[in-house]
Amino acid sequence: MNLFQDLKFAVRLLIKDRWFTAVAVTALALGIGVNATVFTFVNAVLIRGLPFNDPDRILVVGTRDARARDRGVSYQDFVDWRAATRTFSGLAAYSGQTMNVSDEGRTPERYQGPYQSANAFSLIGQKPLIGRDFLPEDDRPGAAAVVILGNGVWKNRYGSDPSVLGRTIKVNEMPATVIAVMPEGFKFPTGADLWMPLAQMPQLLEQKRDARNSLDTFGRLADGVTMAQAQSEMNTIAGKLARDYPDTNKDVSARVMTFNDRVNGGPIKLIFLSLMGAVGFVLLIACANVANLLLARSASRAREMSVRISLGASRWRIVRQLLVESVLLSIISGLLGLALAYVGVRLFDAATQDVGKPYWIAFTMDAQVFAFFAAVCLGTGVVFGLAPALHVSKTDLNEVLKEGGRSGSSGMRARRWTSALIVAELALTLVLLAGAGLMMRSFLNLYRLDVGIETSQLLTMRLNLPNQKYPTPEQRWIFYERLDQRLAGLSGIQAATLTTNMPLGGGFPRLLSMDGKEPVAGEQPPTVTQVTIGPRYFETVGLKMLRGRAFDELDGTAGHDSTIINQRFASMYFGTDDPIGRRIKLRVDGPQSPGAPPPEWVTIVGIAPTVRQRMQPGDDVPDPVAYIPLRGHAPSFMMLLIRAQRDAASLTSLAREEVRAIDPNLPLFGVLTMDQQLAQQRWPFRIFGTMFAIFALIALALSAVGLYAVTAYSVAQRTQEIGVRMALGAQAAQVLWLILRRSIVQMVIGLTIGIAGALGVSKLLSSVLFQTGSRDPVLLAGIVLLLIIVSTSACLWPARRATRLDPVNALRNE
Question: Which has the higher per-residue pLDDT, 58 or 489?
Fold first, then answer.
């Protein structure tokens, strides 16, 4: 009953103090709203996990080499693991691939599709919508090929026709029987559209034991087994394999983690946790603001509380009344914040469509989000309401009720509380501004990055030649040569070429050996980037050779092993020496692919301008690149680059027709202009940088409002003192300094603490920054200056009002 009375009184009071309520609700709604928004993202990416029963018991089992680098699993190791493990109810392996699907009367299409163990779906507890799961006999060498379709393929390609079961289609040129269709939305492990048994994977049995980049392994823990026990068992198994196969398994250990940690760990986890910290700062600043407002209002309520105490109210009764008011305020703010969060989630979801996130990540508000939201609302009400409630409950009855009593010890306590809260606000705001500044500078550096080529009118598309139809480099080269010849004579195409990687599209890391330079014993060879290119590559991307020559028709044939390096490569490894005619060797850091020829010495025949291939955090300078000719090194997966004379996008259908004229079952996919490709690569910096900036601006605005309110309250409390000083001859500048002095001291303390925190945040974000140092003194100085200007301006306005007080009116008001 008493609690209901407190609630009614709190409602009447909030309605009465409309302006106070509006300001407090706005500040808290912003803080609660951004927290609910970001927690929705964190919940979807880092907490919720796979949409199966007991997702935390579905673990990934990988390997780690002697240099502590995470690796996949070789097929031979997987077979031994599966036979030896007892802590897992089962282990399954898969290999993510692209699959070309073709059948009579339909246009060939390319899909994502893994080869996987027959028990993979049973381990996660997923059954087909129609048809049957893989059987053990489907996953044996020599078994007839079968395929399971994803729901999207079934609907879009086959019109949801149930009779597709039992039909034979071609998957990578291999006839396969459709045995099932999976439920809608199911795309395990990440974005799969169809699935085939692992035994159908080309050259699987030929893989060596140290080929640890082809398979990923996962399993479900057996009943009653912990992840620590599974890790211990896998360490034992890995140790036994190291003793049995020292040539391939020495210093190779096993690593166990949850499936979600494997997919969403690393930089993306750091970014989301950083965002959670940022919005936590925003909420703390909002709470500090409202707490200061409540402390300011406590002076006007001191007489009310004194009367309550004189009538017998206990201290707990006073604290409870004030906490009910603050919690009610936070609930009202939470409802508005929830609406803001809903809008924020929808905007973020729209911005991250088609960026390659795992299929199970859905940015929706579930029970965990609402539980967090409720906890934040309740906790916020207690956090910002507790300090004012305790302060007011300590009101000195005699001091307040006697004539003229104004402040005394309770006023000193209020000033200490407000000073501490303002210092905390300034420090948190500086830390948040520093993080946002670093993220935005990274994005701007990335946006302004000189690619090194003219990207306009450049069209990119991908193709994947099936190993079953094109098993040898010679066969693949014949296809590429025919395609190159057909494209060369088409109108509207200025130039066209094939390459494994477009500029800024990555490349293959290779260990470098140089003829005449013996490696130092125990020293790791340098790593460079290798890109395979076809004829007219430099003409298509718009580059001219700096020295030497481009590849000719003989390069890549027997006895003509050659390479072209970029200027960065030449300056790093040859200095002022002439690299033309020098020989280098590029080799894989690990085992060679099955059937791949051993690395040969190649002769440098040209130097090209420096063009970036990598665009990753930490890559502050362009990478050294070695280009090798497509002839003789023709891989199955290639990218087609076309420079158009006018509109690049208009050439898509033309390129598809030329490919189908050579192979009617081969699809082109990933068709984007070069500018669209670059925009896709920049999206994380753009979106997350913008979010950091928005949160920082909210914090800056809240801090400015808080400083203004505290300064204005201080002026109101010291009106009589100011009147007396001015009556005795104090000048405006002296009054101004009297008011600003306290604010400046708070500012200095807050900025000092904030600078230390900003340096810590900068170091934390260093791994996700691009061409931005973790300690940027210019940026930090600019942020400090901005905060000083905003803070001083917020204090200056009410301080200037104090200088214009009429001493007579000031003394009369008192």
Answer: 58
